[in-house]
Amino acid sequence: MKTVKLGIAGLGHVGCGLIELVERQAELRLPGKVEIVGVSARSKSRNRPVDVSAYRWFDDAAELAADPEVDVFVELMGGSDGPAKVAVEEALKAGKQVVTANKALIAMHGQDLESLAQANDVDLMFEAAVAGGVPVVRVLRDSLTGVAIQRVSGILNGTCNYLTTEMLQTGRSYDEVLEEAQRLGYAEADPTLDVSGMDAAHKAAILASIAFTADLDFSKVSVKGVDTIELIDLNLADRLGLRIKLIAEGILSDDGVVCRVAPLAMPTDHPLARVDGALNTVRVEGDPLGAVTLTGPGAGPGPTASAVMGDISKLFSPTARSPFGRADHHVTRNFVAAEPAERSAFFLRVKLADRSGALASLTEALAAHGVSVDKLLQESADDSDVSPVAIVTHVCSRGDIDAASARVSALEASVGAPQVIPIDAAM
Ligand code: HSE
Predict the structure, then answer these.
(1) 3-129: CATH homologous superfamily?
(2) pTM of the model
(3) Whose CA is nearest to atom 1 of ligand 1?
(4) Is the N or C terminus of the chain more exposed, i.e. has fewer CB atoms within 10 Å?
(5) pLDDT tens digits, one per residue of 269-320
(6) Complete DSSP assignment for 276-334
């Protein structure tokens, strides 16, 4: 039976999850055996849920990457540049197969690394970089090659989905739930990457690049996160029959590939509204397929380690055809910036000083930009005499709602910045 020898760099939640999985590989269905020949991390002495003392220790991940004993270098360090990139480049140059869960690295440098892999006749695999345990990269790359894809969309960040779900269901604060997501191993080492929408944007850009054979240009991706969402937004939206979620998408337009991440509000019977907690979901729409949806655990040590192991398993018979790989006859597309002229209904939350005429000044500001109110809900003022107001508008352009929101923000009665979230009625 063939044995594949691993060098694992990065011993955080996912690295330790992978070691646990290697240690109980008898329960899995790998084509042969995997053996860990070396590990590397920033700190040797840190307390970990697994005992790594039996493995050769490398202070320098790049040295592990090039070690003659290593067949497959597994990069679980994170970060788009710096030590992770150096180590992956070293591994590829040394003719090692590489498996990584590093979405930032792949979104920023994936295609260059892919070229380096090809030049050295090895594979670069990154199933775990997108949607944790949901096997979407290989499905897009292999199973859906017979589909002309139009749109790839869904929930691609477990931490943000956990935040919006738990805050609404338990009434706990943003900070408290984020801390819990970090404890559970969902969040990135730097959780700003999650809540700013950046992590989901990395993943969406990778999926869009594969789905549309597009040259990945991250500078064209528009990114908004959940870091401005407050509990009051989730509660008021709920009372208006809406759920707010962070949605990522890549769409094929006439000009090229539009990729964006932003919070969206949706009716509670919308298919995405029921995808709760740290779950991820990816919907692929195309011709002549229609649509297919994959849902599952998008974050956490176990699910992510299982995706890493799936890639390792694939490398028992090298494919030399990584997810970005394309043939000369494929159409090559470009990423283009999102169009600001989209039209939809919007969820608008404003905080108003609790005094006579405040609501009238709000509706006047909306009317001045042709924004019409469909539903309106106002809560009693809190101790500071500030009253939250939530509005569902009729369909209008993004330009009109942004202009109306700026006018509202400048009102004497308005407190803080209004929240504006597009409503996605159906998928
Ligand atoms: N921080 C990521 C998330 C982990 O919350 O989805 C999986 O990439």
Answers:
(1) NAD(P)-binding Rossmann-like Domain (3.40.50.720)
(2) 0.92
(3) 187
(4) N
(5) 998 999 999 999 999 999 999 999 999 999 999 999 999 999 999 998 876 5
(6) -TTEEEEEEEEETTEEEEEEEE-SSHHHHHHHHHHHHHHTTS--S--TT---TTS--EE
